[in-house]
Structures are given as structure tokens and as C-alpha cells.
Amino acid sequence: MTKKQFILTLCLFALLAFPIIAWKSSNRSQTTIDISGVDSVVISDTKSDSLYLPSKKLTATQIKQFADDWNKAKSIGPCKYQPQYRLTVYLKSGTQRNFRANGKTIKEQNDYGFRMKEENYFDHLYESAK
Q1: pTM of the entire structure?
Q2: Which of 38, 84, 93, 100 has the least C-beta neighbours within 10 A?
Q3: What is the 3-state secondary structure (H, E, C) of 2-30?
Q4: Per-residue model confidence as pLDDT tens digits over 84-118
């Protein structure tokens, strides 16, 4: 391989690889939850066969714990699943953030998942919510 071929190959690799790396890294990072901007958080059970299970509102302590755990969650890459729970974070600004969760895995805007700290994290959260 000549020096010119090597440089052209390197440039071609850079042109192909860098956009893919940038795209993958942009999907891996979650937007942290600033606890001072949160008004409330509601969790809904979507896995039950029953007609209706009430949504539950998290306590201030649970909200803080959830925000801390989400902010520390480890990325696991793309994943597909039927969500067992839906969480809605209502912000003081009037906007909201929607999450889909299953076991200890959670997704927000796309199918890139994050792993919470314990198995059945969301089962425990729903059961303990008011």
C-alpha cells in the first residue's frame, strides 16, 4: 500500500466512523434530573391484566431517590421491551418527561436503555408509592 492509498483509506475511515461514533454516543447519555426543578412524579402500572390500576404519586423522598438513581444509571445500549411501568416527571417549568420502565431497566426518549441499581427497582417503587 502506497502512502497516498494509506492516507485515502484513513480519510475514508474517518468520514465513515466519526458520524457513527457521534450518533452512538449521543444516544447513550441521559439527561439528568435536577431535583430542584421537579414538581412531582407519577408512576403507572401498565403490566397488569386488570382493567385499571391507579397511578401513584411519589413522595418527596422517593422523588429524590429516583432522581439520584436515574442520574447514576448505567447505559446498557439499545433494548426493546414492553414497559411494565410508565413514569411521568412533572417539572416546575410546566413541562414533563416521560419514562418507560421494566424491572430495573428504564428508557426515556428512545430505545436506549439504562440500568437502575437493583432488580425489580420499579416493582418496589410502585408498591411503596402512595
Answers
A1: 0.76
A2: 93
A3: CHHHHHHHHHHHHHHHHHHHHHHHHHHCC
A4: 999 999 999 999 999 999 989 999 989 899 999 99
